[in-house]
Amino acid sequence: MSKTLEQVGAESRCYNFSAGPAALPLEVLEQAASELSNWRGNGAGVMELSHRSKAFVSIADQAISDLRELLNIPDDYAVLFLQGGASGQFGCIPMNLLGNASRLDYVHTGQWSKKAIAEARKHAEVNVVATAEASGFNHIPDPAEWTCSTDAAYLHYTPNETIGGVEFGFVPEVSEAPLVADMSSTLLSRPVDVSRFGVIYAGAQKNIGPSGLTIVIVKRALLGNAHKLLPDAFNFELQDKAGSMLNTPPTFAWYMSGLVFQWLKQQGGLDVVATNNKRKADKLYGAIDASDYYQNPVREDCRSWMNIPFICGDSTRDEAFLQGATDAGLHTLKGHRSVGGMRASIYNAMPEAGVDALVAYMQEFERTGA
Ligand SMILES: Cc1ncc(COP(=O)(O)O)c(C=O)c1O
């Protein structure tokens, strides 16, 4: 488990509930710090190494092989370490996969899928197979009611909506088209059967590593259809052939993510991580549901393990809540600017002690401050 605040000294480290860039395991930060100016006797730090050097190639290969092991990624899938963020992929995915098709299917479950849809519309007709907009995105629409096309190049969905705190607890089985998933805020939080997907992609800055790195896991059978105007640096097929080094990759973020993969393996792998994440989330939802003061708007079976929005009974006390939390070492609990209220992001690196501290603070604030 991660070190608690008591172990690291509450004055220097906070419990960081940021949605991303988010907290990283302290052990990873400490190892990176110790290697910052001289990586394993190499005479230079990782940031200063050529991406073509033997030293960096060994770091890169190890990270890929650890990620493959953690997610049990089949051999016929490419694992790419790219740049441009998940938002960059909103446009790159249609440009890589559309081919001769003219239609794309998307599920609309919140603000991130909305952005993905808007980008996809620049490239093709988008069929929104289901939307939860009418109910304020408080649930996942029932797949039995999705209106999928028969000729879509793929079906895209967002397994975890980071802003709304709505999560799919299942992989949809509704269409012949390959599944494409924006897993930015859920990848590595629990095991996933990669073979069910055509593409999985994620910005690294939540559960994986620092910002600047975008992971794309793509079934090789889908490659070879890229639009001719797609820049080579975002072409999955070319990047696969070049080992993600067609141009200079985000080397430091790649290295840091590799350290996170090793940390995850040391925790016992994704089964153990998932159990821990479920326990942490249950604790926080339990405290919210048991209180008359706090509320989470999401239907119980669709609640995110990673991002937990909540509102206080008296919104005029929100600033006092946030200030008191910061004073107690509980940082970045303000909700997304578009929805207000609070949001606690409790990714893998958030120790259970951080959730305990938040629950204790919430109960104390309800008792004395509300
Ligand atoms: C689910 C989801 N998709 C996409 C994004 C956008 O990611 P990026 O900033 O890497 O483009 C985010 C960022 O928070 C996200 O949570």
Brief characterization of the structure:
By secondary structure, this protein is of the alpha/beta class. The chain is built from 10 helices and 14 strands.
Q: If you had to describe this structure to a student in words, what would you say it looks like?
A:
The structure is a single chain. The chain is α/β, with parallel strands linked by helices. The protein has two domains: 5-18 and 269-369, Aspartate Aminotransferase, domain 1; 31-266, Type I PLP-dependent aspartate aminotransferase-like (Major domain) (Aspartate Aminotransferase, domain 2), CATH 3.40.640.10. 34% of the residues lie in helices and 16% in strands. The chain contains ten helices and 14 strands. It has helices at residues 5-8, 26-35, 54-71, 85-97, 111-120, 236-241, 251-267, 270-290, 318-327, 352-369; strands at 15-16, 77-82, 103-108, 125-131, 152-157, 160-161, 166-167, 179-182, 199-203, 214-219, 294-295, 307-312, 330-331, 342-345. The strands form four sheets. It has a seven-stranded mixed sheet with strand order 2-10-9-8-5-3-4. It has a three-stranded antiparallel sheet with strand order 11-12-14, with helices on one face. The protein has a two-stranded parallel ribbon with strand order 1-13. β3, α5 and β4 (125-131) form a beta-alpha-beta unit. α3 (54-71) packs across α7 and α4 (85-97) packs across α5 (111-120). The protein is globular and about 60 Å long. The chain starts with a helix and ends with a helix. The model has no long low-confidence stretch (mean pLDDT 95). It binds pyridoxal-5'-phosphate. Pyridoxal-5'-phosphate is lined by residues 20, 85-87, 112, 158, 162, 182, 184-185, 203.
